[in-house]
Design brief:
It is a single chain. By secondary structure, this protein is an all-alpha fold. Helices cover 67% and strands 0% of the residues. The chain has one domain: Up-down Bundle (Glycerol uptake facilitator protein). The protein contains nine helices and no strands. α1 crosses α7, α3 packs antiparallel against α4 and α3 packs parallel to α9. The longest helix is centred in the N-terminal third of the chain and has 26 residues.
């Protein structure tokens, strides 16, 4: 028999761990393992869809348990937007970061199992010389804030009680795909501090030294979106 009981915090954190693991393993894994394969590699287009598919599949799998944030910036934006309880913020973020680090570790074990493996950037994010297109710090900050802002607007709008029921995972997954299509050449696209942290811990000091941007900019963009949606678009039903 179905139960209407609220999932425990432990269950929610386990779901966030698993979901973020899948996002990083599937998204970054597609970049590390499949993007550059000669003749049949999936390229940036395939990586963009891989990230979108991880979020869409997990939204259906664990959305009813934890809300499927998978991202400290999303959690921050939903908190400011009145959709999330502040007492659960730190446990959620810890679960997300640990899930991302675990996924990066598993991905490293797989990726390093072939002759001639080179770690390289390991799907890490970067600006300046570490940007795929060598974009400036200012360009990368603006891109990450803007793309995270729009991603949170999609999340908050599609999960609004007034929105069509059951379609939010599709909108959110396709939204993440779209912002990757825009942002991969600029920063390798973060919009997610946990996703950035896992690969950077393996890629080394130069990527870790730039990690601050991929915490600060997504959180700023998400908070701005939370405030904007709550102020302009929300009503008493959301």
């Amino acid at each position: 028999m179905a139960s209407n009981q609220e999932p425990s915090l432990g269950a929610k954190c386990a779901a966030e761990f698993m979901g973020t693991f899948w996002l990083v393993f599937g998204g970054c894994g597609s970049a590390v393992l499949a993007a550059g394969v000669a003749d049949v590699g999936i390229g940036w287009l395939g990586v963009s869809f891989a990230f979108g598919l991880t979020v869409m599949t997990m939204a259906y799998a664990i959305g009813h348990i934890s809300g499927c944030h998978l991202n400290p910036a999303v959690t921050a934006g939903l908190l400011v937007g009145g959709r999330f309880a502040g007492k659960d913020f730190v446990p959620y973020v810890i679960s997300q970061v640990v899930g991302a680090i675990a996924a990066s570790g598993v991905l490293y074990v797989i990726a390093s199992g072939t002759e001639g493996f080179q770690l390289g950037g390991f799907a890490s994010n970067g600006y300046g010389e570490l940007s795929p297109g060598k974009y400036s710090l200012v360009a990368c900050v603006v891109a990450e804030i803007t793309l995270t802002f729009m991603f949170l607007m999609i999340i908050m709008g599609s999960t609004d009680q007034r929105a069509p029921a059951g379609l939010a995972p599709i909108a959110i997954g396709l939204g993440l795909t779209l912002i990757h299509l825009v942002g991969i050449p600029v920063t390798n696209l973060s919009v997610n501090p946990a996703r950035s942290t896992g690969p950077a811990m393996l890629a080394g000091a130069q990527y870790l030294s730039q990690l601050w941007l991929f915490w600060a900019a997504p959180i700023v963009g998400a908070v701005l979106a939370g405030v904007t949606y709550k102020t302009i678009f929300a009503d008493d039903q959301t």
